[in-house]
Amino acid sequence: MKKIKFSITGTFIIVCFSAIFAFTAEVKSTLPSPSNTSVNVMPAATTTQVKQPPAGGSAVNATPAATTLAQDQTLTVTPADNYIYNPSGKPDPFRPFVTVDAAKIKQQIAKKAEVSMFPLQRADTERYRVVGIAGDKDHRVAICEDSAKKFYPLYVGTRIGLYNGRVIEILADRVIVEEYETKKPRRVILKLRKN
């Protein structure tokens, strides 16, 4: 058992030290050492001239004819970054392929609006018919009927209709509902049918 603990501890120490030395080691530069070439920097539209050093090594050992020959040799290099993009006649890559009409999207969203889980908010307010009102001045209850002949009680504050309508007042002969189809509230009056 002691041998196993010793071998695991030794392996762990070796791995830790090798990781420490690997991450703290100096990185040797792989860039070439600077040479004795002189470069004249010009704007991108012009050419760059590079003078090459004499082929014979140092200038002390070279003959005067070789140095004048080397000085006359100039290399002409054209830059590779002189590309200019001309967008004429090409499609704009940042415009969408399909144009989208915002009004149509709003109509589709309104059509696909989730059906409310509350039955009073599944149809327009005008589709409901008030068939009865009961109670005194302070606490009135109205009974409305939908197109499927189902009856629902209405209290002050009850939500009704597609456009977030709310019952704000129940009078003796009518129910007043305030809807918010747009930013301005719209009042809808549901009158009691006496027949």
End-to-end gap: 99 Å
Supply the helix-strand structural class: alpha+beta
Residue windows where pLDDT falls under 50 for at least 5 positions = none
Number of helices: 3
As laid out across the biggest beta sheet, the strand order is 7-8-9-10
**Helix-residue proportion:** 10-25%
CATH class of the domain at 118-191: Mainly Beta
CATH topology of the domain at 118-191: SH3 type barrels
Order of helices and strands: HEEHEHEEEEEEE
Number of strands: 10
Question: What proportion of the residues form beta strands (DSSP E)?
Answer: 15-25%
Shape verdict? elongated
Rg to the nearest angstrom?
A: 44 Å
Average per-residue pLDDT, rounded, comes to: 79
Main pleated-sheet profile = 4 strands, antiparallel
Second-tier CATH architecture of the domain at 118-191: Roll
What does this structure look like?
This protein is elongated. It has helices spanning 2-24, 64-72, 102-111, and strands spanning 38-40, 48-51, 74-77, 129-135, 140-145, 151-154, 159-160, 165-170, 174-179, 186-191. The strands form three sheets. Strands 7-8-9-10 form a four-stranded antiparallel sheet, with no helix packed on it. A three-stranded antiparallel sheet has the order 1-2-3. A three-stranded antiparallel sheet has the order 4-5-6, with no helix packed on it. Among the domains are: 38-77, no CATH class; 118-191, Roll (SH3 type barrels), CATH 2.30.30.830. Strand 4 (129-135) and strand 5 (140-145) form a beta hairpin. With 195 residues, the protein is α+β, with helices and mostly antiparallel strands. The protein contains three helices and ten strands. The mean pLDDT is 79.
